[in-house]
Design goal:
By secondary structure, the chain is mostly helical. 76% of the residues lie in helices and 0% in strands.
Length: 420
């Protein structure tokens, strides 16, 4: 049976690229602060929890979409503020899963808060990408202002791609280029000379250093930066209007893509962190490329990475563009969508210029926005929409764990990011 939406192959390309981004470049430094073994355990826990969070959101959506209009009206207070067609029918099938579930759980205010947090997460990721592209153009000899204008213009042009099918080819190309960048990291890590003195410092580096948890949490969670985009990819694979066997097949396909993506990215993250720490120890730089020797290969890796992140920028901004275009529809004519996208890209570029530190942007975005949309919101949605008698005890324990990690870990990570 042909998939009703985005194919599994193209979805996998998009998911892999949305996960493997700038976060992996700052991860070795973060893991060195917390200890390698503790970091591997922490990465596994964050991967499992973020997958569980995505699953909770989609389960909420499936349950809500099975309700008819009267039940939806009763659930959300007579549908106040919901979009309807000319006949008064709720347009649930035209809303993204984030919009639909957040409104179903907490009404208009909950929807707005969710969209703001989702937008902040995706904008933070995109701004970190823009930071790097601008810095690369400056390294080529452009001044600060020309580099900013050139990067903004290039990213705005790429953002005119509207479908995940079109973006998938850029994602696949970016993955190939990223393989070259990570290959250089592995190559030079085998020849590096670690200057660590050993003793207790070496033990903490390899096993655990509890004081470094805050420095680890934000960048590590940011590494699973596909949390927000994963739901948009889900919507492209599982169109809301499709039902029956086709919908079941599409849901299973999305689950397969999610599992394969997390297994692959976890393996890449652990390999990069382990090689970097074993080679450079505490001397590893905040951005791993700066640990490489200054030569032509390092310069080529930095240039290649700028291309990768430029291609990835459009993927990370896709949920922001979709939400903006849907919610601005009553005010902005649909034919003006290119202008809306260009203005949003300019806004992100301005944020990148205001915070021109990729590692700090990564830490802040992970600790605040991704902790909220990956942990706190999925648990809150599920607890609100699922009656106690319909929930398993393991669901309650999972939600409690998500809320704890999201609030405590996010706060700790925020404090560490502001202090560093």
């Amino acid at each position: 049976m042909e998939a009703p939406g985005l194919s599994e192959r193209l979805a996998l390309a998009n998911m892999l690229k949305t996960m493997i981004g700038s976060g992996v470049l700052t991860l070795p430094w973060a893991c060195a602060q917390f200890g390698l073994v503790a970091s591997v355990v922490g990465l596994f826990g964050l991967a499992w929890l973020t997958m569980a969070g995505i699953a909770l959101v989609t389960r909420c959506a499936y349950g809500l979409r099975e309700l008819g209009d009267p039940e939806l009206d009763k659930l959300v207070g007579n549908g106040a503020g919901r979009r309807r067609d000319d006949g008064g029918k709720l347009l649930a099938e035209r809303e993204s899963t984030w919009e639909f579930v957040s409104f179903g759980a907490f009404g208009r205010r909950g929807k707005m808060a969710t969209l703001l947090l989702l937008g902040a997460a995706q904008v933070g990721v995109s701004a970190s990408y823009c930071d790097y592209v601008v810095a690369t153009l400056e390294a080529w000899g452009l001044g600060a202002a020309p580099a900013f204008v050139a990067a903004t213009s290039c990213l705005a042009l790429l953002s005119l791609l509207r479908s995940f099918r079109s973006i998938a080819w850029f994602s696949a190309a970016a993955l190939v280029v990223y393989a070259y960048v990570l290959g250089l990291v592995f190559f030079y890590s085998t020849a590096a000379d670690d200057d660590d003195d050993g003793g207790l410092g070496r033990f903490a580096l390899l096993f655990a250093r509890p004081a470094g948890l805050g420095a680890f949490f934000g960048p590590a969670l940011y590494c699973f930066e596909g949390i927000g985009t994963a739901i948009s990819i889900h919507d492209a694979m599982v169109p809301p209007g499709v039902g029956g066997a086709a919908a079941a097949d599409a849901r299973q396909a999305f689950s397969n893509v999610l599992t394969r993506t997390y297994v692959a990215t976890f393996a890449v993250y652990v390999a990069v962190a382990a090689c970097s720490i074993a080679s450079w120890g505490y001397q590893v730089q905040e951005v791993i490329l700066y640990s490489l020797p200054e030569n032509g290969l390092r310069a080529s890796a930095q240039d290649a990475l700028a291309v990768v992140l430029a291609f990835s920028f459009v993927l990370q901004m896709q949920p922001v563009h979709e939400i903006a275009e849907a919610n601005l529809a009553p005010l902005v004519p649909r034919k003006c969508w290119p202008l809306t996208r260009v203005l949003l890209v300019a806004l992100v570029s301005g944020l990148a210029r205001a915070v021109p530190d990729m590692r700090r942007m990564v830490a802040l975005t992970g600790a605040v926005s991704f902790a909220a949309i990956g942990f706190v919101l999925p648990a809150a949605f599920f607890l609100k929409l699922k009656r106690r008698e319909d929930r398993h005890k393991k669901d309650d324990l999972l939600c409690a764990g998500l809320l704890f990690v999201g609030t405590v870990g996010g706060t700790w990570g925020l404090v560490a990011a502001l202090r560093t």
